[in-house]
Amino acid sequence: MKEYIILVYSLFMLLLNFSAQGQTIKVEFKNREAEHSIDILFDGKIFTSYCWPENVYKPILYPVYTSSGTVITRGFPLKPREGERNDHLHQAGIWLNYGKVNGLDFWGNGYRGYKEPGGGEIRHLKIESMGVGTNEAILATIESWLNPKGRELLSEKTQYHFIAKGVLRIIDRITTLTAKDTTVVFSDTKEGMFGIRVARQLELPLNESVVLLDAEGKPSSQKVPAANGATGNYRSSKGITGEAVWGTRAEWMDLYGIIGNEMISIVVCDHPKNPGYPTYWHARGYGLFAANPLGWSDFTKGRETFNFTLKPGESATFRYRVIISSGNHLTDEEINGLKQEFYNKY
Description:
Elements: H1 2-20, E1 27-32, E2 37-42, E3 45-51, E4 60-64, E5 94-98, E6 121-133, E7 136-146, E8 152-165, E9 168-179, E10 184-186, E11 192-197, E12 209-210, E13 224-225, E14 233-236, E15 252-259, E16 262-269, E17 280-283, E18 288-292, H2 296-300, E19 308-310, E20 315-326, H3 332-345
Antiparallel strand pairs: 1-2, 2-3, 3-4, 5-11, 6-7, 7-8, 8-9, 9-20, 10-19, 11-18, 12-13, 14-15, 15-16, 16-20, 17-18
């Protein structure tokens, strides 16, 4: 019966997608800077928010929804939901940072619920612009990568393109990092770089036991099988699936699964102009979905090293596309078409 309902829902979404092609969607921003948030809405429904919580130590997109309104990002630690894991406090929403920048840990800062003595912070400085086009919202922001004493190591300029295409929702992130008055070394580590922490249902059905949050947002007293309610699976552009994708290189990675009756795909695309292309994947079964183009040594057990370096005044641009499909799992042909569109656009 469950499979029948999912099939009917999927057919409905395919018809909806077909009818929605070519339609103009109302795009708008809701400016809530006083609350450290800018909302992005399509046809009056929130898609995501660009926000900079003081206790996260980096800007994030959070939460993120499908076109039908299903949340695909974990709620914890900002807004915990029943049945979630409560691990890795530093993993929230969608973000970009790194674990060894001149020896500082930007990636894991806040993992114990407070700012780490050796942790770096990405501080939001300003909204540079907000623009609306046909089925697309464009947000430009400026950030600063700071050491624990407040000294700037890198300046950041990021442009987000939020795109509605039928039942698809797309986020293109274009981030340029510029070294300030000192050489900046991104030492090889698996802890990076463009990450998403997904909803519990999109985790892989792992063979382990875990503690989950109860209805009050507190850890339950008993462990349960991690496979309970987990429907996710990875599939890379190289045809590798499951947990085996970790530490492999690929042009794109698809995480697909089911939430309720809704079939969902989340695809992250690398870009050939990025350093370290094609990226390695720091994609874990417990819900961390990350592209890491810089951590070569960890992924190759020391056979290769990168230690990507920017001298004072030098810049590097990182480009990533996130595709969120509602009602079906995307095919290779569909993903490759959207990937090529991304390559051509930037």
